[in-house]
């Protein structure tokens, strides 16, 4: 019986060759951002609770999403930063897994086909990601706007993992789940050499207007694509979701304008 997403991709005639690759987006906090660019290393802070491994996470073409229930104590001292990378420029490091959603929210999605392994594509190439988008969404724009192809999977299909992905699109799970349920996740194992020169970075406006911070950024990385986002601190309060929403909007605009 054909259940897994990986089997589904193997069966597709479409190869997604016509699709332009989107960037891998890695979101971190201000403090960790400077550590990353100084050491030229993306690293895992702790083992992934789902896969029990030290993993570095990226989202394909989209910034990280934070559910509303996560509220920071102490205000917005450390705002999020997103780095955008070319998936094929990671040198010795290669992706370990691809999933069609943020694996951390798996239990919130209320999917019937389990375990999560049914949704894993091992050692994905850029071609595999494009093939998935071609088969499920048709175009990058449809993927970015969460619109599945009507004929991606039929009611009587035996591709159960894909039917579950369709169900997730048709029946949003609730306010604790947002865009991360419809965003491709790419995982790298933290082997100590996960690094590439970012194509672009999206940073808080206060970093962009700080001479010392900008000098440090230019000292460590060569990208000229530095996009600021502004936070209304009074409106944001202590709601971390607000900060990520504003930053995510800037990432989305950059991706649409440049990819």
Strand and helix map with partners:
Blueprint (H helix, E strand, L loop, with lengths): L4 H7 L12 E6 H10 L15 E6 L19 E6 L9 E5 L21 E2 L3 H11 L3 H5 L15 H11 L14 E5 L10 E5 H4 L2 H10 L5 E4 L3 H4 L3 H19 L1
Parallel strand pairs: 7-8
Antiparallel strand pairs: 1-2, 1-3, 2-6, 3-7, 4-5, 4-6
Can you characterise this structure?
- The model has no long low-confidence stretch (mean pLDDT 90).
- The chain has 9 helices and 8 strands.
- 38% of the residues are buried.
- The radius of gyration is 18 Å and the shape is globular.
- The chain has one domain (5-198, 233-258).
- The chain has 259 residues and is of the alpha+beta class.
- The chain has an 8-stranded mixed sheet.
């Amino acid at each position: 019986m054909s259940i897994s997403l990986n089997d589904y991709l193997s069966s597709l005639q479409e190869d997604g060759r016509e699709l332009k690759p989107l960037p891998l987006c890695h979101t971190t906090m201000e403090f960790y951002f400077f550590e990353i660019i100084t050491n030229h290393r993306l690293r895992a802070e702790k083992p992934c609770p789902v896969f029990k491994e030290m993993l570095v996470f990226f989202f394909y073409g989209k910034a990280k999403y934070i559910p509303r229930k996560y509220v920071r104590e102490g205000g917005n001292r450390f705002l999020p930063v997103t780095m955008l990378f070319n998936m094929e420029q990671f040198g010795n490091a290669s992706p370990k897994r691809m999933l069609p959603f943020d694996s951390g929210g798996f239990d919130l999605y209320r999917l019937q086909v389990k375990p999560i392994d049914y949704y894993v594509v091992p050692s994905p190439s850029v071609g595999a990601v494009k093939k998935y988008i071609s088969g499920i969404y048709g175009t990058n724009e449809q993927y970015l706007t969460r619109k599945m192809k009507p004929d991606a999977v039929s009611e009587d299909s035996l591709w159960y993992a894909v039917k579950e992905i369709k169900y997730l699109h048709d029946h949003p799970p609730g306010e604790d789940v947002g865009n991360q349920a419809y965003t491709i996740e790419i995982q790298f194992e933290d082997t100590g050499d996960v690094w590439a020169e970012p194509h672009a970075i999206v940073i808080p406006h206060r970093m962009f207007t700080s001479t010392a911070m900008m000098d440090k950024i230019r000292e460590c990385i060569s990208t000229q694509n530095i996009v600021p986002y502004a936070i209304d601190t009074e409106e944001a309060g202590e709601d971390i979701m607000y900060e990520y929403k504003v930053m995510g909007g800037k990432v989305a605009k950059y991706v649409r304008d440049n990819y």
